[in-house]
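Regression check, magnesium ion case 429:
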Amino acid sequence: MKITISEVGKYVGETVKIGAWLANKRSSGKIAFLQLRDGTGFIQGVVVKAEVEEEGFKLAKEMTQESSLFVTGEVREDDRAPSGYELTVTSVELIHEATDYPITPKEHGPEFLMDHRHLWLRSKRQHAVMKVRNEIIRATYEFFNEQGFVKVDPPILTGSSAEGTTNLFHTKYFDEDAYLSQSGQLYMEAAAMALGKVFSFGPTFRAEKSKTRRHLIEFWMIEPEMAFMDHEESLEVQEQYVSFVVQSVLANCKLELQALERDTSKLENVQAPFPRISYDDAIDMLKEEGHEIEWGEDFGAPHETAIAEKFDKPVFITNYPADIKAFYMKPVPGREEVVLCADLIAPEGYGEIIGGSQRIDDEELLKQRYDEHNLSLDAYQWYLDLRKYGSVPHSGFGLGLERTVAWLSGVEHVRETIPFPRLLNRLYP
Ligand code: 4AD
Ligand code: MG
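Current build output:
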């Protein structure tokens, strides 16, 4: 019976065959311990000289790291193994011998590992991060499908910019100019007017000259947009969504979080509702603590971390000054200098994971914003149309997948949270 490592629990006491790679190996005299991985999991294969053919034992002892093999053996329960199982090997069949695999069990520097990202992905830690990423995506679809949202796919090639023009990737679109999408939001607003509650999940591109542990050039965003929903209602969806994702990862990625040595006690408490603090109060608080920041300035990473440290859950910072936010955000009634928006700041210094707002629904005000931000009517007439034909209050937000993966996995840098990161100085592999 050919099975995967993830299935061994169903075959205790039986003889099974598994296709695997040799991740690591230990041997002494008459016994060899093979650390095997097959993508679905990890298991130790124990090869005892007296119990296999001579050729098989020799093979096991001499096999090189990352060689591929079919291994046959009996599944046994073992309390000491992280997965709870071990394989008593009865035969080993080499598929392909790997020579001089560059990533050895010793420590390597980050640049070396990044140059070998195509191989680094096989390591236990990277495997765990990718599984956490997958669980966040799975839980996202479950949550929004359950809540009656429709998945909509906005375009990647666009003629307009959603989040300002400074970090657009330019390309030619035959004779026209085009840009890679930096957010699907404007299109998702159109979709919400057609389908009510919608969400997108796709890649976005920002030519940001930032070289920080939180910035990628290409990253993936989940962008829900909801008709007939005000800002406060949107915050409730956000805290429920994030809580659901965190609890799903805790429930379904136990082995992965263990492999990552993640302190899960810090995640267990992440349940809605989340605290809210206004931008005004956040500024006062930072000033009291001696930070050099004035009302009207945007927060940097140290500011966000200082605010997040006050709470043991993610915290919403609400109502930022209009001047430091995007053109489409609706002003707070009676206080036009601030807008109905919030950034959700993750605990433990992982920074902003969500940006969201209520959108301007008044045609005249939006036109005024086009003037202030030099947006051409040619490119944006369609977006104005949404305010012309049955305009409604509507809100939405964008969750950055990689920052969420970094937070839940407890990894320091977003470069480990996406299979092939695009960074300021890196397009290879
Ligand atoms: O705050 P941002 O720029 O918001 C928007 O793009 C809105 N249009 C979303 C919406 O309302 N539909 O980006 C949203 C999130 C951030 O909170 C952050 O988590 C992530 O996207 N993000 C990045 N992640 C990695 N690398 C970058 N360069 C990122 N820029 C933003
Ligand atoms: Mg933002």
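Comparison notes: The CA atoms of residues 202 and 288 lie 40 Å apart. Residues 124-146 form the longest helix (23 residues). No diff flagged against the previous build.
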